[in-house]
Amino acid sequence: MGRIAGMNQFGPPRGEIIFRLCFSLIGLGLMIFAVLYRGIGGIAAVEIVGIAGAFFGGTAIWSIWQLRRMK
Questions:
Q1: Is the CB of residue 24 less than 8 Å from the CB of residue 59?
Q2: Per-position b or e across 55-66, b if 16+ CB within 10 A of its CB
Q3: According to the 3-state scheme, what is the secondary structure of the chain?
């Protein structure tokens, strides 16, 4: 079977991975801006920043890893 350029057989296409990477980096940037602008007001803010950082950071790392594997 022929393969379309930039597509994995079972995974998302390259364009979607690039979108996920951009979305994650924008999310991390906005979160850092919010923390610098507003500060961390309590334990709930620490939890929210931790979960959001893990989500956006993990997605960014996964996207970079996938893009490097595609080359």
A1: yes
A2: ebeebbeebeeb
A3: CCCCCCCCCCCCCHHHHHHHHHHHHHHHHHHHHHHHHHCCCCHHHHHHHHHHHHHHHHHHHHHHHHHHHHC
Per the domain annotation, does 5 fall within a domain?
no
Total domains, the chain: 1
CA distance 19 to 6: 14
Residue 35 domain-assigned? yes
pLDDT in tens, the chain (71 residues): 455 655 557 889 999 999 999 999 999 999 999 999 999 889 999 999 999 999 999 999 999 999 999 87
Q: Domain range for residue 18? A: 14-70
